[in-house]
Design goal:
heterodimer, A: 156 residues, 8-stranded mixed β-sheet, 3 helices, B: 80 residues, alpha+beta, Ubiquitin-like (UB roll), globular
């Protein structure tokens, strides 16, 4: 299998970029691209202390797999892809998502990695609650889903 | 028939899940109406922006339901 997708309870095990890169390596692959999403200390003018990620895990894993399959259809079946998304609370700097793409040449790997993160942001059932330094918390407004998981541009 | 709706994201303050009693033959639109009636008006706009899903797919409004279905309500997403 050349796709790995996962929703990980990060209170048990943090996300691991090395694991992602190892997965996408192959003898015929000359390129490996890694994307890391991390919690920022500031968003929309507010000081952020941490973020909690809520995930509908079975559907999220399925949406990751669908998106990776689409990337392979676009950029080649020999593309290897790794996606792991955090579930739980992270402090500033904590990794929320790790994506890696491996392919024979760099163009496919860069494009596929970018495609996977952009599609996940608008299609995967994941929700972010920001915790601010003043003690307040808020669910971040996001992208409304369409029936087939495409973004509708209604919100966010 | 009974339909269970799991709550995520901004619906979490209302609990882990809500069980709704519906007539046999109900579809997703009936779940939406009953779910909206069960929650306070300040989240009705959010419900309108949300979709219902099962563990495999986001459901159409006219999708039929089995007895004892377990659905999830998905507010606008913000992962990554």
């Amino acid at each position: 299998m050349n796709i790995h997708v996962e929703v990980r309870d990060i209170e048990k095990q943090v996300l691991d970029p090395a694991e992602a890169l190892n997965f996408v390596e192959a003898p015929g692959h000359g390129a490996g691209v890694l994307f890391l999403g991390a919690v920022r200390n500031r968003n929309q003018g507010r000081d952020v202390q941490g973020v909690s990620y809520d995930v509908f895990a079975p559907l999220a894993a399925q949406s990751f797999a669908e998106i990776c399959t689409e990337a392979q259809e676009k950029w080649g079946q020999d593309l290897r892809l790794y996606v792991a998304h955090a579930q739980g609370r992270l402090a500033v700097g904590g990794l929320s998502i790790v994506i890696a793409a491996g392919s024979p040449h760099r163009d496919e790997a860069f494009r596929a990695c970018r495609y996977v993160i952009e599609e996940i942001k608008t299609r995967a059932p994941v929700w972010k609650q920001e915790h601010y330094t003043d003690g307040d918390s808020e669910w971040v407004q996001g992208h409304a889903l369409c029936q087939h998981g495409d973004q509708s541009h209604v919100h966010g | 028939m009974k339909v269970t709706v799991q709550l995520f994201g901004a619906f979490r303050p209302f609990g882990e899940r809500i069980t709704i009693e519906l007539s046999d033959g109900a579809d997703v639109s009936h779940v939406r109406a009953a779910f909206t009636a069960a929650l306070p008006s300040e989240v009705h706009e959010l419900i309108a922006l949300s979709r219902f899903a099962d563990a495999r797919t986001v459901l159409a409004e006219d999708a039929p339901l089995d007895a004892d279905s377990i659905l999830a309500i998905l507010p606008p997403v913000s992962g990554g």
